[in-house]
Design brief:
Keywords: Hydrolase
Number of domains: 2
CATH class of the largest domain: Alpha Beta
InterPro entries: HAD-like_sf, HAD-SF_hydro_IA, HAD_sf, S-2-haloacid_dehalogenase
Strand order of the largest sheet: 3-2-1-4-5-6
Structural class: alpha/beta
GO molecular function, one term: phosphatase activity
Pfam families: Hydrolase (PF00702)
Radius of gyration: 18 Å
CATH topology of the largest domain: Rossmann fold
CATH superfamily of the largest domain: HAD superfamily/HAD-like
Protein name: Haloalkanoic acid dehalogenase
Length: about 250
Amino acid sequence: MARSLDTYDLISFDCYGTLVDWESGIVRGLKPLIDRLDKLHPLKDDNIAILQRYMYHEHRVQKAFPTLKYASILSKVYEELASEWGLRETITDDDNESAAFGASIGSWSVFPDTLAALLELQKHFKLVILSNVDAESFSKTLAGPLAGFKFDAIYIAEEIGSYKPDLNNFQYLVQHCEEDLKVPKEKILHTAYALVHDLVPAHKFGLSTCWIERKPNAMGGELSQVQGQLSLDFRFRSMGDMADAIRGL
């Protein structure tokens, strides 16, 4: 029999893509490059394809540099995209364009339903972040788009030493939820929009999973891509729907 949402004590969240509108932030940050694309370039007006190319390079860079700060990962991805699109020579050390992209994290907006949903969920659960980010970048998000909200714990790639989907990140989550918050693995519900980076490895590690099916979902993946790798425990179209579900119990 499927478990009820109220049988969990803690919800762990991916932040960027689930709570924060990562995809819109990425597209805005890449605008200097996109604007320089030839008007006939196949990616010129195709944000979905642009985000998929971004994701391809981010995964490669994170795998190659697992201890590099996320802001520096972003800068490297910016340069990789510029090279792929024949624009590398347009980026100079003087204009700090790639560095500005890396520093843009704190300007990415939360989804309209995020804060109200978190406030409702906080009445029922401990709330924890498990994010592929560095401390400085996440502090900008906490001071800006998520200002005024306090999580019970924040676990980030910089302190863990690896990036999701590495199972080490989920082992770290479980170990520290047990040690820091006294919540056992079976009482944790990992919640995210990213299937490959979050929910597949969380499921593989034995955690319960909840998919926030944000649309459009250029970088989070579709269920057809992970058939046989994932069994979802819960599925909601938005954080607001998740909050409504617990409110109704």
